[in-house]
Protein backbone atom coordinates (compact mmCIF):
# COMPACT_ATOMS: atom_id res chain seq x y z
CA UNK A 1 0.00 0.00 0.00
CA UNK A 2 1.25 3.49 -0.84
CA UNK A 3 0.05 7.00 -0.12
CA UNK A 4 -1.07 7.47 -3.71
CA UNK A 5 -3.93 5.10 -2.86
CA UNK A 6 -5.43 7.16 -0.07
CA UNK A 7 -8.61 8.15 -1.91
CA UNK A 8 -9.60 4.63 -3.03
CA UNK A 9 -8.96 3.30 0.46
CA UNK A 10 -11.02 5.98 2.21
CA UNK A 11 -13.83 5.57 -0.27
CA UNK A 12 -13.88 1.83 0.40
CA UNK A 13 -13.90 2.34 4.17
CA UNK A 14 -16.83 4.75 3.89
CA UNK A 15 -18.94 2.08 2.17
CA UNK A 16 -18.18 -0.44 4.90
CA UNK A 17 -19.74 1.36 7.85
CA UNK A 18 -20.30 -1.93 9.63
CA UNK A 19 -16.56 -2.20 10.22
CA UNK A 20 -16.49 1.17 11.94
CA UNK A 21 -19.65 0.65 13.99
CA UNK A 22 -17.84 -0.99 16.87
CA UNK A 23 -19.84 -2.83 19.53
CA UNK A 24 -19.04 -0.30 22.24
CA UNK A 25 -21.42 2.24 20.77
CA UNK A 26 -20.83 5.68 19.36
CA UNK A 27 -17.29 6.36 18.20
CA UNK A 28 -15.86 8.76 15.69
CA UNK A 29 -15.15 7.03 12.37
CA UNK A 30 -11.43 6.51 12.03
CA UNK A 31 -10.74 6.90 15.75
CA UNK A 32 -8.47 4.29 17.29
CA UNK A 33 -9.56 4.85 20.88
CA UNK A 34 -12.80 4.51 22.88
CA UNK A 35 -14.94 7.55 23.60
CA UNK A 36 -14.78 6.95 27.35
CA UNK A 37 -13.04 4.72 29.86
CA UNK A 38 -14.56 1.76 31.65
CA UNK A 39 -13.23 -0.51 34.40
CA UNK A 40 -12.27 -3.41 32.13
CA UNK A 41 -10.47 -6.71 32.71
CA UNK A 42 -8.22 -8.56 30.30
CA UNK A 43 -8.02 -12.23 31.34
CA UNK A 44 -4.93 -14.33 30.57
CA UNK A 45 -5.18 -18.11 31.06
CA UNK A 46 -1.74 -19.69 30.74
CA UNK A 47 -3.21 -23.20 30.86
CA UNK A 48 -5.08 -22.68 27.57
CA UNK A 49 -2.57 -22.93 24.71
CA UNK A 50 -3.42 -21.23 21.41
CA UNK A 51 -0.30 -22.02 19.35
CA UNK A 52 3.50 -21.95 19.58
CA UNK A 53 4.97 -18.45 19.83
CA UNK A 54 6.24 -17.52 16.36
CA UNK A 55 5.66 -13.73 16.25
CA UNK A 56 2.96 -13.97 13.58
CA UNK A 57 2.57 -10.18 13.29
CA UNK A 58 6.25 -9.20 13.27
CA UNK A 59 6.79 -8.73 9.55
CA UNK A 60 6.88 -5.72 7.25
CA UNK A 61 6.24 -4.63 3.68
CA UNK A 62 9.37 -2.87 2.33
CA UNK A 63 10.47 -2.96 5.97
CA UNK A 64 14.14 -3.53 5.16
CA UNK A 65 15.79 -1.05 2.82
CA UNK A 66 19.25 -2.52 2.36
CA UNK A 67 21.79 -4.87 3.85
CA UNK A 68 22.39 -2.31 6.58
CA UNK A 69 19.11 -0.44 7.07
CA UNK A 70 17.89 -1.44 9.50
CA UNK A 71 21.04 -3.26 10.56
CA UNK A 72 20.83 -6.90 11.52
CA UNK A 73 21.60 -5.86 15.10
CA UNK A 74 18.55 -3.59 15.04
CA UNK A 75 16.33 -6.35 13.66
CA UNK A 76 17.35 -9.24 15.91
CA UNK A 77 15.64 -8.05 19.16
CA UNK A 78 12.35 -7.82 17.23
CA UNK A 79 12.55 -11.48 16.18
CA UNK A 80 10.96 -10.76 12.76
CA UNK A 81 9.22 -13.62 10.98
CA UNK A 82 8.91 -12.54 7.37
CA UNK A 83 8.75 -9.61 4.97
CA UNK A 84 7.40 -8.76 1.54
CA UNK A 85 10.08 -7.12 -0.59
CA UNK A 86 10.15 -5.85 -4.21
CA UNK A 87 11.11 -7.84 -7.25
CA UNK A 88 14.74 -8.59 -8.16
CA UNK A 89 15.90 -5.73 -10.37
CA UNK A 90 13.07 -3.50 -9.14
CA UNK A 91 12.62 -0.08 -10.71
CA UNK A 92 9.81 0.80 -8.32
CA UNK A 93 9.65 4.29 -6.82
CA UNK A 94 7.37 3.90 -3.84
CA UNK A 95 5.85 6.71 -1.76
CA UNK A 96 7.76 9.55 -3.41
CA UNK A 97 11.15 7.84 -3.47
CA UNK A 98 13.68 9.10 -6.00
CA UNK A 99 15.56 5.80 -6.29
CA UNK A 100 14.37 2.19 -6.31
CA UNK A 101 14.57 0.50 -2.95
CA UNK A 102 14.62 -2.78 -1.17
CA UNK A 103 15.31 -5.35 -3.91
CA UNK A 104 14.53 -8.74 -2.35
CA UNK A 105 17.85 -10.28 -3.36
CA UNK A 106 19.83 -7.25 -2.20
CA UNK A 107 18.33 -7.35 1.30
CA UNK A 108 18.09 -11.13 1.54
CA UNK A 109 21.29 -11.72 3.50
CA UNK A 110 20.26 -9.15 6.11
CA UNK A 111 16.95 -10.93 6.56
CA UNK A 112 18.60 -14.35 6.82
CA UNK A 113 20.93 -13.07 9.53
CA UNK A 114 17.86 -11.78 11.40
CA UNK A 115 16.05 -15.10 11.06
CA UNK A 116 13.40 -13.81 8.64
CA UNK A 117 11.98 -15.04 5.35
CA UNK A 118 10.35 -13.08 2.53
CA UNK A 119 7.80 -13.00 -0.26
CA UNK A 120 8.91 -11.49 -3.56
CA UNK A 121 6.31 -9.03 -4.91
CA UNK A 122 6.69 -9.50 -8.65
CA UNK A 123 4.73 -6.51 -10.05
CA UNK A 124 6.98 -4.12 -8.13
CA UNK A 125 9.31 -4.47 -11.08
CA UNK A 126 7.22 -1.64 -12.59
CA UNK A 127 8.42 1.89 -11.69
CA UNK A 128 5.10 3.51 -10.77
CA UNK A 129 1.97 2.72 -8.80
CA UNK A 130 -0.69 1.82 -9.76
CA UNK A 131 1.23 -0.39 -12.17
CA UNK A 132 1.28 0.64 -15.82
CA UNK A 133 0.61 -2.47 -17.89
CA UNK A 134 2.88 -2.77 -20.93
CA UNK A 135 1.46 -5.91 -22.50
CA UNK A 136 1.80 -9.63 -21.99
CA UNK A 137 5.09 -10.00 -23.80
CA UNK A 138 6.62 -7.35 -21.54
CA UNK A 139 5.16 -8.85 -18.36
CA UNK A 140 6.23 -12.38 -19.15
CA UNK A 141 9.72 -11.19 -19.99
CA UNK A 142 9.86 -9.47 -16.59
CA UNK A 143 8.63 -12.61 -14.85
CA UNK A 144 11.27 -14.78 -16.52
CA UNK A 145 14.03 -12.33 -15.60
CA UNK A 146 12.97 -12.27 -11.94
CA UNK A 147 12.81 -16.03 -11.58
CA UNK A 148 16.15 -16.49 -13.34
CA UNK A 149 17.76 -13.88 -11.07
CA UNK A 150 16.43 -15.65 -8.00
CA UNK A 151 17.56 -19.09 -9.19
CA UNK A 152 21.06 -17.71 -9.73
CA UNK A 153 21.27 -16.82 -6.02
CA UNK A 154 22.11 -20.34 -4.89
CA UNK A 155 22.81 -19.33 -1.28
CA UNK A 156 19.52 -17.44 -0.80
CA UNK A 157 17.46 -19.75 1.41
CA UNK A 158 14.72 -17.42 2.65
CA UNK A 159 12.41 -16.92 -0.36
CA UNK A 160 9.05 -17.97 1.08
CA UNK A 161 6.95 -17.34 -2.01
CA UNK A 162 6.30 -15.58 -5.30
CA UNK A 163 3.54 -12.96 -4.97
CA UNK A 164 2.24 -12.80 -8.53
CA UNK A 165 0.35 -9.50 -8.30
CA UNK A 166 -0.57 -6.82 -5.78
CA UNK A 167 -4.13 -5.60 -5.12
CA UNK A 168 -5.60 -6.78 -8.42
CA UNK A 169 -9.06 -5.65 -7.30
CA UNK A 170 -8.05 -2.17 -8.43
CA UNK A 171 -4.59 -2.34 -10.06
CA UNK A 172 -5.17 -5.05 -12.67
CA UNK A 173 -5.86 -3.57 -16.13
CA UNK A 174 -8.64 -5.85 -17.34
CA UNK A 175 -9.27 -3.87 -20.51
CA UNK A 176 -5.68 -4.38 -21.65
CA UNK A 177 -4.70 -7.66 -19.99
CA UNK A 178 -7.99 -9.56 -19.81
CA UNK A 179 -9.60 -10.84 -16.63
CA UNK A 180 -7.46 -11.13 -13.55
CA UNK A 181 -8.44 -14.76 -12.99
CA UNK A 182 -7.17 -15.67 -16.45
CA UNK A 183 -4.09 -13.52 -15.94
CA UNK A 184 -3.39 -15.21 -12.61
CA UNK A 185 -3.57 -18.67 -14.17
CA UNK A 186 -1.33 -17.65 -17.07
CA UNK A 187 1.29 -16.11 -14.77
CA UNK A 188 1.09 -18.99 -12.28
CA UNK A 189 1.79 -21.54 -15.01
CA UNK A 190 4.75 -19.54 -16.28
CA UNK A 191 6.32 -19.17 -12.82
CA UNK A 192 5.65 -22.81 -12.02
CA UNK A 193 7.30 -23.93 -15.26
CA UNK A 194 10.45 -21.99 -14.32
CA UNK A 195 10.44 -22.71 -10.58
CA UNK A 196 8.17 -25.59 -9.52
CA UNK A 197 9.57 -25.59 -5.96
CA UNK A 198 9.01 -22.12 -4.47
CA UNK A 199 5.44 -21.54 -3.19
CA UNK A 200 3.13 -19.15 -5.07
CA UNK A 201 1.02 -16.75 -3.01
CA UNK A 202 -2.03 -14.61 -3.72
CA UNK A 203 -4.46 -13.23 -4.80
CA UNK A 204 -3.45 -10.27 -2.56
CA UNK A 205 -6.62 -8.20 -2.86
CA UNK A 206 -6.58 -4.83 -1.11
CA UNK A 207 -9.36 -5.99 1.24
CA UNK A 208 -11.27 -9.18 1.88
CA UNK A 209 -14.22 -9.66 -0.49
CA UNK A 210 -16.32 -12.84 -0.40
CA UNK A 211 -17.50 -12.75 -4.00
CA UNK A 212 -14.05 -12.06 -5.42
CA UNK A 213 -12.55 -14.86 -3.33
CA UNK A 214 -15.19 -17.35 -4.51
CA UNK A 215 -14.64 -16.37 -8.14
CA UNK A 216 -10.86 -16.48 -7.82
CA UNK A 217 -10.67 -19.83 -6.02
CA UNK A 218 -13.21 -21.47 -8.30
CA UNK A 219 -11.21 -20.49 -11.37
CA UNK A 220 -7.92 -21.38 -9.69
CA UNK A 221 -9.20 -24.84 -8.76
CA UNK A 222 -10.50 -25.44 -12.29
CA UNK A 223 -7.13 -24.42 -13.80
CA UNK A 224 -5.00 -26.17 -11.15
CA UNK A 225 -3.52 -22.83 -10.05
CA UNK A 226 -4.65 -22.55 -6.43
CA UNK A 227 -2.00 -20.57 -4.52
CA UNK A 228 0.04 -22.34 -1.87
CA UNK A 229 -0.55 -19.44 0.54
CA UNK A 230 -3.67 -17.26 0.57
CA UNK A 231 -3.00 -13.53 0.88
CA UNK A 232 -5.24 -10.54 1.32
CA UNK A 233 -4.76 -7.10 2.92
CA UNK A 234 -6.37 -5.51 5.98
CA UNK A 235 -5.99 -1.75 5.62
CA UNK A 236 -9.13 -0.05 6.93
CA UNK A 237 -9.42 1.83 10.19
CA UNK A 238 -10.25 -0.70 12.94
CA UNK A 239 -10.50 -3.59 10.48
CA UNK A 240 -9.09 -5.80 13.22
CA UNK A 241 -12.69 -6.07 14.42
CA UNK A 242 -13.65 -8.03 11.28
CA UNK A 243 -10.63 -10.29 10.87
CA UNK A 244 -12.26 -13.29 12.55
CA UNK A 245 -15.19 -13.08 10.14
CA UNK A 246 -12.86 -12.87 7.15
CA UNK A 247 -10.95 -15.98 8.22
CA UNK A 248 -14.15 -17.94 8.91
CA UNK A 249 -15.61 -16.93 5.54
CA UNK A 250 -12.43 -17.89 3.70
CA UNK A 251 -12.27 -21.30 5.39
CA UNK A 252 -15.92 -21.92 4.48
CA UNK A 253 -15.14 -21.15 0.82
CA UNK A 254 -12.24 -23.62 0.91
CA UNK A 255 -14.53 -26.28 2.35
CA UNK A 256 -17.27 -25.62 -0.19
CA UNK A 257 -14.82 -26.03 -3.07
CA UNK A 258 -12.99 -29.02 -1.63
CA UNK A 259 -9.68 -27.13 -1.38
CA UNK A 260 -7.28 -28.22 1.36
CA UNK A 261 -6.57 -25.58 3.99
CA UNK A 262 -3.99 -23.05 2.90
CA UNK A 263 -1.90 -20.92 5.28
CA UNK A 264 -3.18 -17.34 5.53
CA UNK A 265 -0.76 -14.43 5.17
CA UNK A 266 -1.85 -10.81 5.63
CA UNK A 267 1.13 -9.14 4.01
CA UNK A 268 -0.23 -5.62 4.53
CA UNK A 269 -2.01 -4.71 7.75
CA UNK A 270 -2.94 -1.48 9.55
CA UNK A 271 -4.38 1.72 8.16
CA UNK A 272 -2.83 4.99 7.01
CA UNK A 273 -4.46 6.90 9.89
CA UNK A 274 -3.56 4.43 12.65
CA UNK A 275 -0.23 3.02 11.53
CA UNK A 276 1.86 4.63 14.27
CA UNK A 277 -0.44 4.07 17.25
CA UNK A 278 0.99 1.28 19.43
CA UNK A 279 -2.36 0.13 20.80
CA UNK A 280 -3.70 -0.33 17.27
CA UNK A 281 -0.78 -2.56 16.37
CA UNK A 282 -1.56 -4.42 19.60
CA UNK A 283 -5.14 -5.02 18.44
CA UNK A 284 -3.76 -6.45 15.20
CA UNK A 285 -1.30 -8.71 17.02
CA UNK A 286 -4.16 -10.04 19.12
CA UNK A 287 -6.51 -11.00 16.31
CA UNK A 288 -3.79 -12.28 13.99
CA UNK A 289 -2.58 -14.67 16.69
CA UNK A 290 -6.06 -15.58 17.89
CA UNK A 291 -7.58 -16.35 14.49
CA UNK A 292 -4.82 -18.30 12.83
CA UNK A 293 -2.78 -16.18 10.43
CA UNK A 294 0.57 -17.79 9.64
CA UNK A 295 2.27 -14.41 9.18
CA UNK A 296 1.46 -10.74 8.74
CA UNK A 297 3.39 -7.68 7.57
CA UNK A 298 3.09 -4.07 8.68
CA UNK A 299 1.85 -1.89 5.81
CA UNK A 300 4.14 0.40 3.82
CA UNK A 301 2.44 3.80 3.98
CA UNK A 302 5.48 6.02 4.48
CA UNK A 303 9.26 5.58 4.36
CA UNK A 304 10.83 2.32 3.22
CA UNK A 305 13.56 0.69 5.28
CA UNK A 306 12.26 1.82 8.69
CA UNK A 307 10.45 -1.43 9.42
CA UNK A 308 7.32 0.58 8.62
CA UNK A 309 7.77 3.09 11.41
CA UNK A 310 9.43 0.99 14.09
CA UNK A 311 12.53 3.14 13.55
CA UNK A 312 12.81 6.87 12.89
CA UNK A 313 14.62 8.16 9.81
CA UNK A 314 17.63 8.54 12.12
CA UNK A 315 17.47 4.81 13.00
CA UNK A 316 16.20 5.38 16.53
CA UNK A 317 13.46 3.24 18.08
CA UNK A 318 9.93 4.63 18.13
CA UNK A 319 7.19 3.97 20.67
CA UNK A 320 5.85 1.11 18.55
CA UNK A 321 9.31 -0.47 18.48
CA UNK A 322 9.06 -1.33 22.16
CA UNK A 323 5.72 -3.04 21.68
CA UNK A 324 7.22 -5.19 18.91
CA UNK A 325 10.30 -5.87 21.01
CA UNK A 326 8.15 -7.13 23.88
CA UNK A 327 6.23 -9.24 21.38
CA UNK A 328 9.50 -10.48 19.86
CA UNK A 329 10.58 -11.73 23.29
CA UNK A 330 7.61 -14.11 23.54
CA UNK A 331 8.72 -17.72 23.87
CA UNK A 332 6.96 -20.98 24.63
CA UNK A 333 3.30 -20.82 23.68
CA UNK A 334 0.81 -18.11 22.91
CA UNK A 335 -1.95 -18.58 25.47
CA UNK A 336 -5.56 -17.54 25.66
CA UNK A 337 -6.44 -13.92 26.29
CA UNK A 338 -10.06 -12.86 26.74
CA UNK A 339 -10.57 -9.18 25.84
CA UNK A 340 -13.22 -6.92 27.23
CA UNK A 341 -14.48 -4.20 24.92
CA UNK A 342 -11.44 -2.16 23.82
CA UNK A 343 -8.98 -3.76 26.22
CA UNK A 344 -7.09 -6.55 24.45
CA UNK A 345 -3.73 -8.27 24.45
CA UNK A 346 -1.40 -11.11 23.48
CA UNK A 347 0.26 -13.34 26.05
CA UNK A 348 2.85 -16.11 26.08
CA UNK A 349 3.89 -18.65 28.67
CA UNK A 350 7.37 -20.16 28.69
CA UNK A 351 7.02 -23.20 30.94
CA UNK A 352 10.78 -23.83 31.01
CA UNK A 353 11.57 -20.50 32.65
CA UNK A 354 8.11 -19.87 34.15
CA UNK A 355 7.67 -16.48 32.48
CA UNK A 356 4.30 -15.01 31.50
CA UNK A 357 4.73 -12.15 29.04
CA UNK A 358 1.59 -10.13 28.25
CA UNK A 359 1.39 -7.09 25.96
CA UNK A 360 -1.89 -5.22 26.13
CA UNK A 361 -3.70 -1.90 25.75
CA UNK A 362 -6.60 -0.17 24.07
CA UNK A 363 -8.52 1.72 26.74
CA UNK A 364 -8.28 4.72 29.05
CA UNK A 365 -8.46 4.86 32.80
CA UNK A 366 -8.18 2.23 35.51
CA UNK A 367 -8.30 -1.35 34.27
CA UNK A 368 -7.12 -4.80 35.30
CA UNK A 369 -5.13 -7.72 33.91
CA UNK A 370 -6.06 -11.04 35.53
CA UNK A 371 -3.55 -13.88 35.03
CA UNK A 372 -4.85 -17.40 35.72
CA UNK A 373 -3.13 -20.80 35.86
CA UNK A 374 -0.25 -19.78 38.15
CA UNK A 375 -0.57 -22.72 40.55
CA UNK A 376 2.99 -23.92 39.88
CA UNK A 377 4.47 -20.46 40.55
CA UNK A 378 4.18 -20.70 44.34
CA UNK A 379 2.37 -18.43 46.76
CA UNK A 380 3.95 -15.21 45.49
CA UNK A 381 5.02 -13.83 42.12
CA UNK A 382 7.11 -10.94 40.88
CA UNK A 383 5.13 -8.56 38.66
CA UNK A 384 6.74 -5.96 36.41
CA UNK A 385 4.64 -3.42 34.50
CA UNK A 386 6.01 -1.22 31.68
CA UNK A 387 4.56 1.16 29.11
CA UNK A 388 5.42 2.78 25.79
CA UNK A 389 3.64 5.99 24.75
CA UNK A 390 1.30 6.70 21.86
CA UNK A 391 3.80 8.77 19.89
CA UNK A 392 4.40 8.29 16.17
CA UNK A 393 7.16 7.28 13.80
CA UNK A 394 9.14 10.55 13.99
CA UNK A 395 9.49 10.54 17.79
CA UNK A 396 12.38 8.55 19.23
CA UNK A 397 11.69 6.64 22.44
CA UNK A 398 14.97 5.49 23.96
CA UNK A 399 13.42 3.04 26.43
CA UNK A 400 10.03 2.00 27.78
CA UNK A 401 8.83 3.39 31.10
CA UNK A 402 8.84 1.09 34.10
CA UNK A 403 5.58 1.75 35.95
CA UNK A 404 6.07 -0.68 38.82
CA UNK A 405 7.89 -3.76 40.06
CA UNK A 406 6.01 -5.50 42.85
CA UNK A 407 5.45 -8.80 44.62
CA UNK A 408 1.89 -10.13 44.64
CA UNK A 409 0.20 -13.01 46.45
CA UNK A 410 -1.26 -15.77 44.30
CA UNK A 411 -4.84 -16.66 45.19
CA UNK A 412 -6.43 -19.79 43.73
CA UNK A 413 -3.74 -19.84 41.07
CA UNK A 414 -4.43 -16.29 39.90
CA UNK A 415 -3.48 -12.64 40.35
CA UNK A 416 -5.35 -9.47 39.37
CA UNK A 417 -3.02 -6.62 38.49
CA UNK A 418 -4.44 -3.09 38.53
CA UNK A 419 -3.25 -0.86 35.69
CA UNK A 420 -4.25 2.69 36.49
CA UNK A 421 -4.38 5.82 34.37
CA UNK A 422 -4.03 3.93 31.10
CA UNK A 423 -3.60 5.84 27.86
CA UNK A 424 -5.71 4.24 25.14
CA UNK A 425 -3.07 4.89 22.46
CA UNK A 426 -0.17 3.53 24.49
CA UNK A 427 0.86 -0.12 24.88
CA UNK A 428 1.81 -1.98 28.05
CA UNK A 429 3.81 -5.03 29.07
CA UNK A 430 3.15 -7.21 32.10
CA UNK A 431 5.80 -9.80 33.02
CA UNK A 432 5.02 -12.37 35.73
CA UNK A 433 7.67 -14.70 37.19
CA UNK A 434 8.03 -16.64 40.44
CA UNK A 435 9.62 -14.69 43.27
CA UNK A 436 13.34 -14.87 42.62
CA UNK A 437 12.73 -14.86 38.88
CA UNK A 438 13.72 -17.53 36.36
CA UNK A 439 16.39 -20.07 37.28
CA UNK A 440 18.92 -17.98 35.30
CA UNK A 441 18.93 -14.38 34.18
CA UNK A 442 19.20 -15.45 30.54
CA UNK A 443 17.26 -17.86 28.41
CA UNK A 444 18.84 -21.32 28.18
CA UNK A 445 16.23 -23.48 26.44
CA UNK A 446 15.12 -22.62 22.91
CA UNK A 447 12.17 -24.53 21.52
CA UNK A 448 12.52 -25.50 17.86
CA UNK A 449 8.92 -24.55 17.09
CA UNK A 450 9.57 -20.96 18.23
CA UNK A 451 12.46 -20.55 15.80
CA UNK A 452 12.85 -19.98 12.05
CA UNK A 453 11.63 -23.27 10.56
CA UNK A 454 12.37 -23.64 6.84
CA UNK A 455 10.88 -26.43 4.71
CA UNK A 456 9.82 -28.41 7.77
CA UNK A 457 6.70 -28.62 9.93
CA UNK A 458 5.62 -28.24 13.56
CA UNK A 459 3.74 -31.04 15.32
CA UNK A 460 2.10 -31.38 18.71
CA UNK A 461 3.14 -34.10 21.14
CA UNK A 462 2.85 -34.78 24.86
CA UNK A 463 6.40 -36.14 24.71
CA UNK A 464 7.84 -32.83 23.52
CA UNK A 465 8.89 -30.09 25.88
CA UNK A 466 6.38 -27.26 25.60
CA UNK A 467 4.07 -29.64 23.70
CA UNK A 468 5.51 -29.14 20.19
CA UNK A 469 8.47 -30.20 18.05
CA UNK A 470 9.70 -29.76 14.48
CA UNK A 471 9.70 -32.73 12.09
CA UNK A 472 9.90 -33.46 8.38
CA UNK A 473 13.29 -31.75 8.21
CA UNK A 474 13.88 -33.73 5.05
CA UNK A 475 14.96 -31.48 2.16
CA UNK A 476 18.51 -31.19 0.87
CA UNK A 477 18.22 -30.69 -2.91
CA UNK A 478 18.94 -26.95 -3.29
CA UNK A 479 18.39 -23.54 -1.68
CA UNK A 480 14.64 -23.65 -2.46
CA UNK A 481 13.92 -26.93 -0.68
CA UNK A 482 16.71 -27.37 1.87
CA UNK A 483 15.39 -28.00 5.40
CA UNK A 484 16.75 -26.46 8.57
CA UNK A 485 15.92 -24.70 11.81
CA UNK A 486 17.68 -21.43 12.68
CA UNK A 487 17.87 -20.88 16.44
CA UNK A 488 18.39 -17.23 17.41
CA UNK A 489 19.98 -17.25 20.86
CA UNK A 490 21.11 -14.42 23.13
CA UNK A 491 23.93 -15.21 25.56
CA UNK A 492 25.51 -13.02 28.25
CA UNK A 493 29.21 -13.56 27.54
CA UNK A 494 31.53 -14.70 24.77
CA UNK A 495 32.67 -18.22 25.61
CA UNK A 496 32.24 -21.92 24.89
CA UNK A 497 28.80 -23.32 25.67
CA UNK A 498 27.58 -26.88 25.87
CA UNK A 499 24.59 -27.18 23.56
CA UNK A 500 22.30 -30.08 24.36
CA UNK A 501 20.08 -31.01 21.41
CA UNK A 502 16.84 -32.84 22.19
CA UNK A 503 15.95 -34.89 19.11
CA UNK A 504 14.12 -37.96 17.86
CA UNK A 505 15.42 -40.44 15.28
CA UNK A 506 13.12 -43.29 14.30
CA UNK A 507 15.22 -44.60 11.41
CA UNK A 508 16.89 -47.36 13.43
CA UNK A 509 20.36 -46.10 12.45
CA UNK A 510 22.48 -43.02 13.06
CA UNK A 511 21.29 -39.82 11.38
CA UNK A 512 23.15 -36.54 10.97
CA UNK A 513 22.55 -32.81 10.66
CA UNK A 514 24.95 -30.07 9.76
CA UNK A 515 25.63 -27.45 12.43
CA UNK A 516 26.93 -23.92 11.76
CA UNK A 517 26.61 -20.59 13.53
CA UNK A 518 27.52 -16.96 12.87
CA UNK A 519 29.05 -17.81 9.50
CA UNK A 520 31.24 -20.59 10.88
CA UNK A 521 32.32 -23.71 9.01
CA UNK A 522 29.95 -26.67 9.05
CA UNK A 523 30.45 -29.66 11.27
CA UNK A 524 28.36 -32.78 11.73
CA UNK A 525 26.03 -33.67 14.61
CA UNK A 526 25.24 -37.39 14.92
CA UNK A 527 21.90 -38.56 16.32
CA UNK A 528 21.82 -42.21 17.50
CA UNK A 529 18.46 -43.99 17.08
CA UNK A 530 15.69 -43.30 19.61
CA UNK A 531 12.68 -45.46 20.49
CA UNK A 532 10.75 -43.97 17.56
CA UNK A 533 9.53 -40.77 15.94
CA UNK A 534 8.44 -38.30 18.59
CA UNK A 535 10.47 -40.25 21.20
CA UNK A 536 13.26 -37.96 22.32
CA UNK A 537 16.82 -38.29 23.54
CA UNK A 538 19.75 -35.83 23.73
CA UNK A 539 23.24 -35.28 22.37
CA UNK A 540 25.79 -32.67 23.45
CA UNK A 541 28.02 -30.49 21.28
CA UNK A 542 30.23 -27.48 22.05
CA UNK A 543 29.64 -24.11 20.41
CA UNK A 544 31.76 -20.97 20.74
CA UNK A 545 29.36 -18.04 20.85
CA UNK A 546 29.82 -14.28 20.95
CA UNK A 547 28.14 -12.14 23.59
CA UNK A 548 24.65 -11.13 22.50
CA UNK A 549 22.74 -12.57 19.56
CA UNK A 550 23.89 -15.65 17.65
CA UNK A 551 22.12 -17.65 14.94
CA UNK A 552 22.66 -21.43 15.11
CA UNK A 553 21.52 -23.55 12.16
CA UNK A 554 20.77 -27.27 12.38
CA UNK A 555 20.21 -28.50 8.84
CA UNK A 556 19.41 -31.55 6.78
CA UNK A 557 20.38 -29.39 3.81
CA UNK A 558 21.82 -25.88 3.47
CA UNK A 559 24.12 -23.93 1.13
CA UNK A 560 27.76 -24.97 1.46
CA UNK A 561 26.76 -28.13 3.34
CA UNK A 562 26.76 -31.47 1.52
CA UNK A 563 23.68 -32.70 3.35
CA UNK A 564 22.77 -34.79 6.36
CA UNK A 565 22.13 -38.52 6.42
CA UNK A 566 18.94 -40.19 7.54
CA UNK A 567 16.31 -38.09 9.28
CA UNK A 568 15.86 -36.48 12.68
CA UNK A 569 13.26 -34.37 14.48
CA UNK A 570 14.13 -31.44 16.76
CA UNK A 571 12.47 -30.58 20.07
CA UNK A 572 14.78 -27.95 21.57
CA UNK A 573 18.33 -26.92 22.36
CA UNK A 574 19.72 -26.04 25.79
CA UNK A 575 22.79 -23.87 26.35
CA UNK A 576 24.81 -24.28 29.56
UniProtKB/TrEMBL annotation:
Q: Which InterPro entries match?
A: CBM6, Galactose-bd-like_sf, GH
Secretion signal, residue range per the UniProt entry? 1-37
This protein's record includes keyword Protein biosynthesis: no
Q: Which Gene3D superfamilies match?
A: Galactose-binding domain-like, Glycosidases
Limits of the CBM6 domain: 444-576
In alphabetical order, the GO MF annotations are: carbohydrate binding
Query: Which UniProt keywords are given for this protein, alphabetically ordered?
Result: Signal
Q: Supply the name of the protein.
A: CBM6 domain-containing protein
Amino acid sequence: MQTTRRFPRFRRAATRAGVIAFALGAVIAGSAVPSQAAGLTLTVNIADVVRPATQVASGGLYGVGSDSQPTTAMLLPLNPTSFTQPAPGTTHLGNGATEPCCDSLDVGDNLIRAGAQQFIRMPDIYPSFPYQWQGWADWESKVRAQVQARLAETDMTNIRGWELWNEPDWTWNSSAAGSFNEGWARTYKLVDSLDPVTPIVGPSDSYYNHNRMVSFLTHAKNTNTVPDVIVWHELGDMDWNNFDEHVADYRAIEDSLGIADRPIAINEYNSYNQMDIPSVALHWMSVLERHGAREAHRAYWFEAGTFDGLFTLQNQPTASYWLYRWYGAMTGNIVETTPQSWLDGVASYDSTRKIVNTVFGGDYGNNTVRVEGLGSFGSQVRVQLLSTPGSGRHTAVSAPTTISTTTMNVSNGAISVPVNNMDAEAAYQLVVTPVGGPTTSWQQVYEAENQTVVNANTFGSGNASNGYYVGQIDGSADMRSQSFVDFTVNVPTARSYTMTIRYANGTGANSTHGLAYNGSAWFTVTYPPTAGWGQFSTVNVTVNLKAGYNVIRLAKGSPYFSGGTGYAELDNIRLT
